[in-house]
Please model this.
Amino acid sequence: MKDLTVRQDASIRDAITAIGANVLGIVFVVDADDRLVGTATDGDIRRGLLQGKTLDDRIDGVMLADCVALPVTTPPEDVIASFSKKIRVIPLVDEHRRVKDYATPYKHHRIPVASPNLDGRELEYVIEAVRSGWISSRGRYIREFEHGFAEYVGAPHAIAVSNGTVALHLALVAHGIGPGDEVIVPDLTFAATINVVLHAGATPVIVDVDRHTWNIDPERVAAAITPRTKAIMPVHLYGQPADMDALEALADKHGLMIIEDAAEALGSEWRGRKVGGLGHSAGFSFFANKTITTGEGGMLTVQDDAVAARARQLRDHGMNTEKRYWHDFVGFNYRMTNLQGAIGVAQLERVEGLVGQKITLAGWYRERLSGLDALELPVELPDTVNSNWAFSIVFKDYGAAGSRNEVMAQLARSGVETRPLFYPLHVMPPYRTYPAGPLTVSQELSDRGLTLPSSVNTTLDEVDYVCECLHQLFKSAELPKLSG
Model:
């Protein structure tokens, strides 16, 4: 939006430059508080110049002050109805009249499920990294990111890697888990959880999730333990902490490791301790839809000094740390770049605020959806903090796969992006041979669940609009009741 915006005291010359740099043929003119005061097209500028204005005059002298602007939450059908032969670009503004988006006949505002917030010092640090020449896998920002992340999570070691999937794979290999070993994983999770077990050469064992928390069911875990079991991999699904007390008791009893999949749970807590510092190791993701992001990227947290040292060496091709280009074992190139580290440092500076915004967002949804008996909202557990990476709901009265999908389609037509919950692992071709016991809960949740817009950028007005859409949909006679 910065490329489409000029200040009202900017010159006509500057406005022409801005218009020439975008494909819309327009700029949005704002005041010192970034509030929209008008628009200017190349036609407006030509008319002004013909009337005697010069290129050094202010743009607000030729702009269209009574331009059409709409609230960012305007339903798509109302946006479309506002276009005419003369009006082809409409700025979309918040309650303070600050421009947040724009609409054209080919693009109207959607409320996204996720989007990154890069309003801190990200660009400043990236530019500094570029100017320093340290743009690859060495540089101060990687060290600062690792140190700050370890401190935030409460783990002795944090190791920056290229993505969240390799963080989990590195954890398994560094702990010596491989062929002949079994790792217990939940059925309702993203495929990376089970893929890393297979990549390590171990055997995944899929168990069902708890109906109350949607996380791995400790009773199912207990039933699935065999002499070959080496680790349990709980997933803190969508930010909800898994039952770590029960899992730690099982791990202690059977001599197992706990590798936390904390990709979605930055900032979540179990009884006063942050996830990622609870098990033997944990993997985090910094993909663009996560609470903090480095574009791609991840972090491995480790409790044991020797395991951390091995993980660092494995991350860098298995190269000996004392003898350059001497490889002690087969390793990987799982390194993060200093450019990503620069973004990570800037994101980590604001982590409390970003996590807090996620929690606030969940509170808005809870308040506005609590009266809908047809919906099941994420459970709020005592002595825990759910960081609510993704606010997901499950349909009770509506929501067999067909009608859940119809709700998603109707929300999409209203400009609201949603996503279904993950498919259960056991239904997908690569993983059908690994289930242990019945998996009915995962299937039910997957069939009936969806994720609402959960970006840290989601506004209260947008939440109001999403919730109003849901209230209206559940009043509609068009949605079939759940049968059978």
In short: The chain has 15 helices and 20 strands. The domain at 122-349 is CATH 3.40.640.10 (Aspartate Aminotransferase; domain 2). Residues 351-369 form the longest helix (19 residues). The chain has three domains: 2-103, 122-349, 351-475.
